[in-house]
Structures are given as structure tokens and as C-alpha cells.
Amino acid sequence: MRNISRVVVLSLSIIVLLSSTTHSIYLKPESHIKSATFVSENFEVGPGQIAVKNFWDIEFPKGHVGVKSFDVELIDEDGNSVPLYETYFHHWFAIKYFENITLSRNIEQYHDLRNGIVFQRNSGACQGYMLPHYWGLGGESRGTSSNLPDPFAVELGNPTKIPNGFKEKWLFNIMAIDTRGAYDRKGCSECRCNLFNLPNNFYNVTNGIDGKPLSLNYKGGLLCCQDNLQCKLRKGFDGPRRKLSLRYKIRWVDWDEHQVPLKFYILDATDRVKSNGSTTIHDCKVEYTIPRIHDSDSPNVQKASIPMENGGYLIYATTHMHTGVVNATLYGQKIFLSNSFSSDGRVLCTSTPKYGMGKEAGNEKGYLVGMSVCYPKPGSIKIEDGEILTLESRYENQFRTGAMGHFYIYLAEQLPNKDIKD
Questions:
Q1: Which residue has the higher pLDDT, 108 or 246?
Q2: What is the count of structural domains for the chain?
Q3: How many Cα atoms occupy the beta-carbon half-sphere of 40 within 13 Å?
Q4: Are 206 and 213 in contact (CB under 8 A)?
Q5: Smaller CB count within 10 Å for the chain: N or C?
């Protein structure tokens, strides 16, 4: 049985001061934006089966570009959107890597990460390969905007930033949980360990994220949702296997002097920040369990205080959450101004959920189908270098496993000083 370093670290790596200054921004017309829709390679699942896959060298815009949006959904063989109550889309992550051109054939055959592959993670603070992706959501994908306002974009394909002898490439890491005929559909989608056909020695041979043997108190999450495992089905249920794939649409512009680059940060509500002298150490757990708390109507709150080594102007913010989320809020630091301080850390963004009301894909009743996005007026919110941000992730007060609270923020290090053009 693979340990945490393979299931989480590798799976997630190969598998978030009000400024008084005003800025004018040059806006180019929407006609300069290009768009393309791609379809990934397919994968097969049967009722109750888990699929954890890595799709290497996915199709992507070529050249020196600025990506404006990246949207993904799960489809069947006929190109139809798959509803969450049939296959729960736990997550998709788009991860950047550099591939040594001279070793491409060997990598294509063996995906040997020790030889010829260099990953380049986002600007977030989590340790190692924890949460390294540039884009990624889950069941809320269809209802969460990824659009970045002009003239801001994520710069990719810059030849001066690609190591000599390498190519810039991308991969998808995904987890999909087929819940057709599931005995406990909610439990399957939360990766409850007691619902899966885990081997008898699972807890003896599986390590947690801390590298120590997994505790018997681990009741559910990524470690119990490994590729090809089977969730318990209703007695007598028999359904067909089917092939699924990802349909993804990317909008981009050719890079020029009018574009303003953004840095992408993922902040994790489980991050337990420590210090070793002048060194800041991050300990992201990626997921957490919400215990049962009786006689309380208050939501469960998971909180992390995260120092930002490098700040910038907030351009976009949203969250990756799961069904049951109430909201998530990112606060700035309490600051002293002229011998006084703000009464509280200012709210940088509150992201709220949208729940489905019907049966069609994108509006599945009871499921989280979207998270709101914050688009502050450019220049209105500046995060200072070294500022400590507080992330609060709130879920309903119910037992839940594998809960996630990831805040996504795009920051611009500087703003253009050009006049706005209508």
C-alpha cells in the first residue's frame, strides 16, 4: 500500500492595508483574447469505483502567452456533462513542469520523475509538493468564475524562464468518485474509510502526512480514496462501466507590453506555521476532519494565520471547498496607523457557496456547485510584504471527513500607470 508521500505528495504534485493610491489601467478590447476547448485522455470507472489519475503533457496554448481563464468539467463518452450525484468530481489540478528534451522518450515510457522532470509550483507557501498547482477546483468548477480582468494574466511560456534544454509542459491530476449505486453516496464522496475495500493491514502500512504510521483515528480523506478502490454499493446493484474525460476551456492572450503578470498563491486553512529562528516553516495538512459537536448551531471554524513573504495588489480571490461549506473569509493583519490600529484585520475577501436545486449537471440538488469570487478594484487592496493573513474556513456543524479550505489569490506586484481607455 502506498504511503502518504505517494498518495498525497506525489498525487497532488503529479497528481490564498487598504491602499489609498489610485491607479489608471490600460484596457484592451476583448477581441484580442483567444480561446480553445480541449478534451483529455479518457479513463474508465465502474459503480462505486475511485479514479485517481495523472494525465501528462496535456494540450495547452503554445508560445509566450498570458492565461485569462481555465475552466474544467467532467464529461462522458458522448460529450455530456456528468452530474455530481453520478460521479463526484473531488478535484482537478493543473500542474506545470519542465521536461528535459533529450530524455523525452524515456519519460514518456516510464514517467521517471527522478530523471528529466522539474516541477515548478505556484507561489504559495505550503511545504514541498503540497498544493503545487496553478489552477484547480472540484465539484464547484462549473459555477466558479476563473476569469482574470484586463490587463492581468498568468504569464506562461516565457523563453527566458524555461531552463535550457527543457520544454514547459502541463499535467492534470484528478480524483473522481463514481457514486452510482453507492450504499452511502455522501460518505463515498467524503472518502470515509469504512466504506472502502481497504486491505486488512491498511493502517499498519500507510503513513500520514507527518511520515508517521497512520492513526486509527483517521476516519476518511485522500488516503482512503486511492485509485481503483471500491466504495460499498447497495445490495444487488449492478451498473455499467463507462469512460469519462475532462473537457477544459482556456482563454489567453499573446504576451506583450500591455499585459500585467500575476502570481498565484494557495493558502491552506490547515497550515500550522512555525518558526525556526528567522526561517518560517509551513505545515499544510491539505484536508481535515470535522468532528461531531452536539447542541451547537454554530459552524465549525478552521483557522490559520499565514505570513506573506511577498505581498502585492489583490486582483482575484476564491476558494476550493466541499459540500457543507458555509463560507470562507480571508482577513488582513491588524495594523498600527498614527498611534492607533484598525479594530480588526480588514476583510480581503469572503467567498460564499452556491448549492444546486435541481438534477441537471451544474445544478445538482444538495451539492456545492459554485463559490463566489472577489474582484476588488485594482489598487484598492494591497497586501504588504510580511503581512500576516488570517484564513477562516467554515463548514456546517456535522461530522465530515476530507474537508478542505484552500484560498486562491492572484496578486500583482505592481500596477500599470497608463490611462484607462474605453
A1: 246
A2: 1
A3: 30
A4: yes
A5: C
Q: What span, in angstroms and rounded, lies between the C-alpha atoms of 415 and 411?
A: 10
Phi, then psi, of 212 in degrees rounded to 5: -95, 160
Inside any domain, residue 419: no
Given the DSSP bridges, would you call strands 34-39 and 242-254 parallel, antiparallel or unpaired?
A: antiparallel
Mean pLDDT, residues 149-163 taken together = 96
The answer as to whether 420 is a domain residue is no
- Give the Cα separation of 28 and 84 in Å (integer): 38
The answer, yes or no, to whether residue 1 has pLDDT greater than 50, is no
Question: Does 288 map to a domain?
Answer: yes
For residue 422, being part of any structural domain is answered with: no
Question: Distance between CA 402 and CA 127 in Å, rounded?
Answer: 19
Residue 15 has pLDDT above 70, yes or no: no
Per the confidence metrics, is the pTM higher than 0.85? yes
- Structural domain for 84, as ranges: 4-412
Top pLDDT among 417 and 18 is at 417
Tens of pLDDT, residue by residue over 303-362, are 999 999 999 999 999 999 999 999 999 999 966 555 554 545 799 999 999 999 999 999
Q: How remote is the C-alpha of 121 from its chain's centroid?
A: 12
Q: State which amino acid sits at residue 132.
A: P
Nearby residues of 254 by Cβ (< 8 Å), 6 or more positions away: 32, 34, 63, 64, 65, 66
Residue 156, Ramachandran bin (φ over 0: left; ψ between -120 and 50: alpha; else beta): beta
